Amino acid sequence: MGKARIPVVAIFDVGKTNKKLFLFDEHYQIVFERSARFLETEDEDGDPCENLESLRLSVFDSLHEVFRRDEFDIKAINFTSYGASFVYLNESGRPLTPLYNYLKVYPQALELQLHEQYGGVGEFSLATASPALGSLNSGLQVYRMQQQQPELFRQLKYAVHLPQYLSFLVSGQMYSDMTSIGCHTALWDFSKKDYHQWVKDTGIVKKLAPIVQGDDVFSAAFPGSTYKVGVGLHDSSSALIPYLLNFHEPFVLISTGTWCISLNPFNEEALTKEQLEKDCLFYMTYAGTPVKASRLFAGYEHELQTKRIAEHFQTTTAKFKHVEIDWKIIDRLKTTQKVSPQLEAFGELALSDFASYEEAYHALIMFLVASQVASTKLILSSKKVKRIFVDGGFSKNNIFMNLLAKSFEDIEIYAASMAQATAIGAALVIHKEWNSLPVPNDIIALRYFRA
């Protein structure tokens, strides 16, 4: 008698830097993990881009490896990856072009031409809930191909976002999902709940694969295989799923990293011009409902300023990791500093104003929290939010969390931690397809911070 095989789900989590494969058991514990990094390659203009061929081979390679292992019974596979990236597939499912980088410089005249035809940049951005971000508006990448490479555009069967391309490799099915369409692509008209008029007028709508729900699954393309294949998800939307499934009272999630993104899945009020100018947008949940979001480049600013403080006080940035909040310093700073919610404000202060690196660091976090509060307030709605969850880097920062709790006195503030939230989201969304147990309610570890 062989040992019973462990039922698992396989999740590919494809980031800009790290490409990971996880196997989760029915309790959402990681039972296998593999990580890869590829060298970037170049597109025809010499700009850096993802190596699509390495990625494709790596997916098959990793799958072969886990299918060869007798101890696992793979019931389903799903994918999550960064947004704003299209793969252009021909009739036989082969990519026609490199995977262009979303930071690639976009031809200004082309962007202007599109905006002008549809009421100018303000109106266009409001309708599509997409601040004008050049190539980061991935719909404009397809428009660029249509205008500048008409011969290639003719051969194009479907443009699919990266998570759906990964799914296609295993299922052989070409589809679009709402989480990818909803991330600042400039394709979707949020008030009409349909593609924007420009997508139809240009005929680009014919080059976009049919839309399915984010919790849909397909059968695998390989004969004789019984596992199900998910449609794939945009990473920011995927990381929200564990919270949506666990908490039903209105909440906001502040996902912190290089960007700190405040996500409110309980605010469907239309974007205002002012919110748009302050970097607000809509994402979508896997079910296609809008999530109002605001972005702040706070992690990046934290990194810049801690280096500046460390150099000035001749210490190392590692020291800041363990600084606990000192309320005496905070009270003193409140009398000497006029704290501004502008993200760059701290960078303009002279560090000689501070007595020690601890004091300077407390001041930096005071300024960052002021910016964060302003950014998060943009997406609070008339529906009263009961809780704010903070995950990622800043959730481990004692000063940041305490000051945030002090700033939102009537909302409960929690530091939330969950290993691999993005991957777990992609597993949870297809839970019923592979897992015989109920959805666990202890995936997210919470720490409460009192105001």
From TrEMBL:
Alphabetical list of InterPro entries matching this protein: ATPase_NBD, FGGY_C_2, FGGY_N
Membrane-crossing segments per the record: none
UniProt keyword annotations, A-Z: Kinase, Transferase
Source species, domain of life: Bacteria
Keyword Kinase attached: yes
One MF term in the entry's GO annotations: kinase activity
Protein name in the entry: FGGY family carbohydrate kinase
Originating species: Sphingobacterium oryzagri
